[in-house]
Amino acid sequence: MFGVHVVWFKRDLRVHDHAPLLAAVASGAPVIPLYVFEPGYWALPEHSGRQFAFLTESLRELDSALEARGSRLLVRTGPAVDVFSALHREFGLDAIHAHEETGQQWTFDRDRQMRRWARNAGIALREQPQNGVVRAVKSGDGWTALWQRRMAEPRVRAPEAVTSPPLPVSHWPIAEDFGLGADDCPARQPGGRSAGVECLRSFLEARGRDYHAVMSSPLASAEACSRLSPHLAFGTVSLREAWQAARRARDLQSGAGDAGFAASIDSFISRLHWHCHFIQKLEDQTSLESRNLHPAYDGLRPRAGAGDPALEAWIDGRTGFPFLDACLRSLKATGWLNFRMRAIVMGFAAHHLWLDWKVPAERLAARFTDFEPGIHYAQAQMQSSTTGPNSPRIYNPVRQSRELDPAGVFIRQWVPELARLPDAFLHAPWEAPPELLSAAGVVLGQTYPMRMVDHLAAADVARSRIAALRRESGQSAADDIPARFSRRRSGTSAPGPRRRSAQNRPDLAAAPARQLSLDLGLSHVS
Question: Does the fold of domain 289-479 match that of domain 4-128?
């Protein structure tokens, strides 16, 4: 057989709003829907069993959706070039359809190899944009207007039928095949489009009512936040679907007179823009995951080695700071933290432990089911103050604890060994009188760790070191960093509960009403 078209699924695991799939079907050629498990990809330190499990659940549902349309998902394992070479020998490929991927340097390099291979093999490689990222356009050069138009475009309908050549039975690998180990995240969100659509629907219909007010809360945010991030990262729901559904929901709530709910959905819409803005930054500068955005910070902090005791205590939630430990233990069990808690734990590693951001960021990435390289590494650098001349923001873990968890409910849930301490000392147990610790069954250094550092002194040292470096290097080399990195350059608002008026918000610009509806009925999501 010759003239076969392949649809290469990567992080776009759906049949709805999938332009490459529709283009392949429209060609009239036989279509092979393909997913490639790449050993080199899963060997990267950012990847883990929890992500693999979410992926597998999503692929199974994608396979079912394709089967309902007369095809199924062909699964292969190996380097992409090797897999496609074998498929070309077997089927005679004419074209490969895929979405552009903005991911890690590894995927960028792999895609370059694939383009070179396809060109040499005489096979058309037709990449279409993911609707949140604009290739070959810098984030400050009209990106917002282009992004806005992409979001407002009609969603691509799923094909009713997919005609494939006879496909061999696929061998689906398991996590252990890549040395990942089993999924170790008991409260992980389930994968698959059905779960993603339900997640979006429940947020826009009910859960998101208080999102605007409680998105920073360690307890309330787990329910009030959209929790759509892993589905956006793996593409079970497209960014455009989420954006259009949110706009319609906001209009419905506003029309019903529920201004509070409408404001919460406004905040969510702005964060969809913020989400894409930072992925665009990685598209602009692929070294963001491995090199300081500003080279003056090279060598400022030591890089943690394998088994570094401070790093291991931090990632496992044994720092001696109860709120910090609760965040990291919660992350280990659930695969998710809200944005404020992510900033606090990353900032502690960079400033209080004075570790170069790269290894802590890798360890955190493996714990996040929703690991998104563009967002994760941009935030790791921002929280480590390696992005420019602005003064470092160093979170006080005790102050944040008292502000975000004043009654200690979150701490007691995840650090039960401190549950009997009164609220006054729960946030800083080293301040408690010995008799009170004894009455609560707490022995610092035995039942609960001593704090790793004096957080106030460590913060002062970090500020002094950063200030000294800036004095030595001068400001001139840093002056262009905000222009390349600031959210404000592309019209996005910083994460947080602040609002701007709708007429000044590019993400709230008018779009044709016919494009705002999204049928979230689960009977139509396969």
Answer: no
The C-alpha torsion from 232 through 343 and 481 to 352, rounded to 10°, is: -150
What is the 3-class SS of 218-242, one letter each residue? CCCHHHHCCCCHHHHHHCCCCHHHH
Pick the CATH number of 4-128 from 3.10.170.10, 3.40.50.1450, 3.40.50.620, 3.40.640.10: 3.40.50.620
From edge to edge, which strands make up the β-sheet containing 31-37? Answer: 74-77, 31-37, 4-9, 93-99, 124-128
Per-domain residue ranges of the chain: 4-128, 138-156+179-284, 289-479
**What is the spatial distance between Cα 291 and Cα 301, in angstroms, rounded to a whole number?**
13
Token pair 């905000």 in the structure block, residue: 482
Q: Which CATH class is domain 289-479?
A: mainly alpha
Q: What is the pTM of this model?
A: 0.90
pLDDT-above-70 percentage for the chain: 88
List pLDDT tens digits, range 311-340: 999 999 999 999 999 999 999 999 999 999
Span 472-492, average pLDDT: 48
- Does pLDDT of 375 surpass 60? yes
Cα gap 298→287, rounded to integer Å:
14
Helices (H), 79-192: 80-91, 105-121, 143-152
- Does CATH place domain 138-156+179-284 in 3.30.565.10? no
- pLDDT confidence of 140, banded at 50, 70, 90? low
